[in-house]
Each structure stands twice: as C-alpha cells, then as structure tokens.
Amino acid sequence: MAEQRFIDANNLIEEIREERCYNCRNFKDMKCDYCGTADYIYMIEDMPAADVAPVRHGRWKRYGKNLGECSECGEIVSVRNNYCPNCGAKMDEKEDR
Predict the structure, then answer these.
(1) Sequence-separated contacts (24+) of 36-42 with Cβ below 8 Å
(2) CB-CB contact of 83 with 73 (8 Å)
(3) 3-state secondary structure (DSSP) of residue 16
C-alpha cells in the first residue's frame, strides 16, 4: 500500500487552475467544462477530508535509565520508543537530563 500523504486540497486546486487554466479563454474565475481539468477539480472537492491531527513534539525528562516524563502530557512512562505511549507526542526535542 502506498504511503498516505495529507495535502491542502485548496492549494492543489489553485495549482491546477494556474497550470491548466491560465491561458484558457473559457475560464472566468469558475470551473468550466471545456477540457477535462474541471472533472479533476470536482473529484478533489468531492473527496472526504481525512481525519488527522497535528503532530505533537516533546522531550523526555529522565527519571533513571528506563523512566521518563513526557513534556506534553506529564505522564511518567517507560521510555522505550521515540513517542509517548500516553499522548502520542513524537519525542524529537532534546532530552532534559
């Protein structure tokens, strides 16, 4: 399965219009049916939005070798991964020692 990518659909539509409709005499700030470009714009507009959340970034405040406190949620957990198992924050900021 291909990697999922989340994009700004409005920016994509604007890029399509600038690239494909720039010199078109039938395009007057609205979608036309002169070429197939409008079909792609309709498809993008009809696509349901993905349910995504912004990535949270945090750091561990270490308590010994295997325990750490998440800077985002304050939970003290076993530090085994590069993310907090409680809140999902990506632990890519510099650690507190």
Answers:
(1) 40/16, 41/13, 41/16, 41/17
(2) no
(3) helix
